């Protein structure tokens, strides 16, 4: 990794850890409105989690299609359902515009203590068909989040009445399983439907 790419990687990781992303337009296609395209896709690390059906999820699960990956949890009161609803609208609009196949929506739980495969499966189903819910052990989750610069932290509460702070970015994973771009909050449907076809065509 060259000095410039290393610097960009540090900026991305730092911003994600803070739950924000400042638009650093280095080597960005001029036509992109909101997405930040990494200079080169970052391969996903080795990890082992579970999907909503109890199947093992590894980095190979993220090959063969475009994925929009959000890290959240099913007890999230606002940011998570709002973001997933936006992604559902994006997927629907892209499908209607003959962008086939549209990206898959993936929710990776940062609350594996409460989010069983069954729980996360019911949750992602609210936002349409074909979505992937991912959960598993905290140790395996941290392998993925640490490599991608995703921040999350459990906030104390009584018994199961607690919350989890987490990054609000949506990561774009390309069909080779590479982290290739991201969208930071606030998320806007029109920005996704404009930028995603550009990112997908540029691969």
Structure description:
By secondary structure, the protein is an alpha+beta fold. It has a single domain (3-201), classed as Glutaredoxin (3-Layer(aba) Sandwich). Helices cover 33% and strands 26% of the residues. The chain is built from 5 helices and 10 strands, in the order H-E-E-E-E-H-E-H-E-H-E-E-E-E-H. The chain has helices at 3-17, 79-96, 117-125, 138-148, 189-201; strands at 36-43, 49-51, 56-57, 67-72, 104-109, 132-135, 152-158, 161-166, 170-173, 178-183. Strand 5, helix 3 (117-125) and strand 6 form a beta-alpha-beta unit. The longest helix has 18 residues, at 79-96. The two termini are 20 Å apart. The model is unreliable at 1-11 and 14-26 (pLDDT under 50).
Annotate the secondary structure layout:
Layout: H1 3-17, E1 36-43, E2 49-51, E3 56-57, E4 67-72, H2 79-96, E5 104-109, H3 117-125, E6 132-135, H4 138-148, E7 152-158, E8 161-166, E9 170-173, E10 178-183, H5 189-201
Parallel strand pairs: 4-5, 5-6
Antiparallel strand pairs: 1-10, 2-3, 2-6, 4-9, 7-8, 9-10
Helix pairs in contact: 2-5
